[in-house]
Amino acid sequence: MKYFSGMAALAYMGLLACGNAQAVNVSFTGTLLEQPACTVSDGKDITVAFDNVAISKIDGVSYKKMEIPYSVSCTGGSSSYGDLKVKLDFTPVSWGDSKPLQSSVTNLGLRITQGTGDTTYASGTKLTITTATPTKLYAVPIARPGASLVGATFSGAATLTAEYE
Asked: Is 23 helix (H, G, I), strand (E, B) or coil?
């Protein structure tokens, strides 16, 4: 019995320590929003044609800096869903800072920049935009430091997506 009365004493002391308890109700409310469906460049592939690129002029900054022409349009859903973001995914070069897009030529990459400055874009980075004035993206050829390039045709590929988050 000693064990039982010890437990009873502990329970009684717990009740004394609690004092008066107050209870309140908690309610939860919200609105479900549908994500707008977004289309990049009317669903058509984008081509950036560099044409002829002089090997000796490749500087990775300004020579042959070409705009990636894209547009984004969204329909349905709610514009209050969140922020509209674009993302460019590509395979980066294995040399240097690993940010340029790897072209079909081993020692040639395409540095992607964003905005009016010279900020390098890294693959998979999400940029917040508006459909009226999306962030401008550019591509500029960059050579692997210390490597020699020879005349050849080159290509590169990336995937551009847009969605609300």
From this structure: coil
The pLDDT tens digits of the residues spanning 38-86 come to 999 999 999 999 999 999 999 999 899 999 999 999 999 887 888 999 9
Residue 92 and residue 83 in contact, taking contact as beta carbons nearer than 8 Å:
no
Smallest Cα–Cα separation from 86: which of 115, 127, 120?
Answer: 127
User: The sheet that has 84-89: what strands, in order across it?
Assistant: 126-129, 84-89, 159-164
**CA nearest neighbour of 128 among 158, 83, 160:** 83
What tokens appear for 158 in the block?
């990336």
Asked if the model's pLDDT at residue 117 lies above 70, the reply is yes
E strands of 76-156, at which residues?
A: 84-89, 101-102, 108-114, 119-120, 126-129, 137-143
Q: How confident is the model at residue 159 (pLDDT cuts 50, 70, 90)?
A: very high
